[in-house]
């Protein structure tokens, strides 16, 4: 799983028919402090996430196991909206 922040939306008027009802969001992986960690990626939203929310992303074959994405051509899916992140043993 990847911790990420929603930074935008992606609109594609022409796409694979299996993605027609899917919302695509632009996300940026972050570390537990919320600092950017990796390049942006596009993920299918399965939990109705919104702008600036911290989310959990699954990728690869796990993304196709998310709700409603069986047999869809996806490589990343948002599967949770994160309320808090706590790291034990850090100042």
Key words describing this protein structure:
mainly beta; 5-stranded mixed barrel; 5 strands; 0% helix; OB fold (Dihydrolipoamide Acetyltransferase, E2P)
Short account of what is shown:
The chain has 91 residues and is mostly beta strands. The chain is 0% helix and 36% strand.
Give a structural overview.
It is a single chain. The chain has 91 residues and is mainly beta. The chain has one domain (2-81): Beta Barrel (OB fold (Dihydrolipoamide Acetyltransferase, E2P)), CATH 2.40.50.220. Helices cover 0% and strands 36% of the residues. The protein is built from no helices and 5 strands. A 5-stranded mixed beta barrel has the order 1-2-3-5-4. The chain is globular, with a radius of gyration of 13 Å. The protein starts with a strand and ends in a 10-residue tail after the last strand. 20% of the residues are buried.
Outline the fold blueprint.
Layout: E1 2-10, E2 23-29, E3 41-45, E4 54-59, E5 76-81
Parallel strand pairs: 3-5
Antiparallel strand pairs: 1-2, 1-4, 2-3, 4-5
Q: How many angstroms does the end-to-end distance come to?
A: 25 Å
Helix content: under 10%
- Quaternary state, please? single chain
What is the CA-based Rg, rounded? Answer: 13 Å
- Count of discrete structural domains: 1
Strand order within the widest sheet?
A: 1-2-3-5-4
Note poorly predicted spans. none
| CATH level-four homologous superfamily name | EutN/Ccml
Order of helices and strands: EEEEE
Q: Remind me, CATH topology?
A: OB fold (Dihydrolipoamide Acetyltransferase, E2P)
CATH architecture: Beta Barrel
- What's the count of strands? 5
Alpha-beta content class: mainly beta
